[in-house]
Amino acid sequence: MDFGFSEQQEMLRTMARDFLTKECPKAKVRELDKDESGYSPQIWKNMAELGWQGLVFPEEYGGTEANFIDLVVLMEEMGRNITPGPFFPTVALCALPILEFGTEEQKTQYLPDIASGKAIWTLAFTEPSASYKPAELNLSATSEGDSYALNGEKIFVADAHIANYLLVVARTAKSKNPEDGITLFIVDVKAPGLKLEKIHTIAGDRQFQVIFNKVKVPKANILGTVNKGWNIVNFILQRAAVLKCAEISGACQAVLDMTSAYAKERIQFDRPIGSFQAVQHKLADMLIDVEGIQYLLYQAACGIADGEPSQLQISIAKAKASEAYQNICIDGITAHGAIGFTYDHDIGFYYRRVRAAEFAAGNVDLHKELIAAELGL
Questions:
Q1: pTM of the prediction?
Q2: Alpha-carbon distance 202 to 52, whole Å?
Q3: Which end of the chain has fewer surrounding CB within 10 Å, N or C?
Q4: Interatomic CA distance for residues 174 and 194, integer angstroms
Q5: How far apart are CA 310 and CA 287, in angstroms?
Q6: Same domain, 56 and 178
Q7: How many structural domains does the chain have?
């Protein structure tokens, strides 16, 4: 049995790497880091022309009918390049659940605009507790005739300032089981009563607090079934965790490659520092972590691609990736010496993303809890 990538996937990887190297070099990443929008509309448009936003969509919705592994390959290359922009929230957090749970009318209305790059989406999930547990979801949605009124707030909503739509997780009913009474709504960001406030982060990503004050949402904008939305949330979190792992995997590989190259060219005491055992040990540890992330990532991704997602495998991959990402970046910075601790070196950009990547789709503690639950501990 061949466990390697297909010829098409290798072509996708090569094409993505070449495109991102040319269109979004580190100089461009630095430029966008200071830009208020945090992304390049031109690059976003070019990505859409390559079919990236609609990669896994059927042709009828403007897609190329690729599979989930193809999307993992693409996310790895984006992570390798630390590409800024709303691809992850738009595709991983919103497009995939619409494709899976949306009505035919919703798919026809929203997916072609995502595939063409005309629409940007993001998920409004976490609240002031920043927890991913259903008991912490309190933003209320009250039925009023042909619509619902949303009241409450969400925090850490990525790229809300450039989004056209929010996929909002709200509570439509209270129950002894906190997983019951959850409903997902498609909300236009221009809806009256919706307010955005920026949250400043060390990662430099664009995170926002979104306040809902009697925001009216038509019942036609409900994704899935009223009060039965937690299965959609699980669907989102599982795929988002794996795709974030893919992004982390690419970033870790880039840090390893960068550090290995530096160790060969940096001369100290008339020798490359890579000849010193202490540096060699760090590089060996980094390599072990990188390959460990890749193995767990592909294992979890194959389960999803085969229609049999394993929460155990997904949580193991996410917990490992989040912990290893920090260790790899710290070892990489240490090997670079003083220059590694400054923003003048590219490696600093990767370390700034560590915490943001950890909390996306659940942090290490949450996934360790899920691992324990899956093992019956």
A1: 0.94
A2: 28
A3: N
A4: 24
A5: 26
A6: no
A7: 3
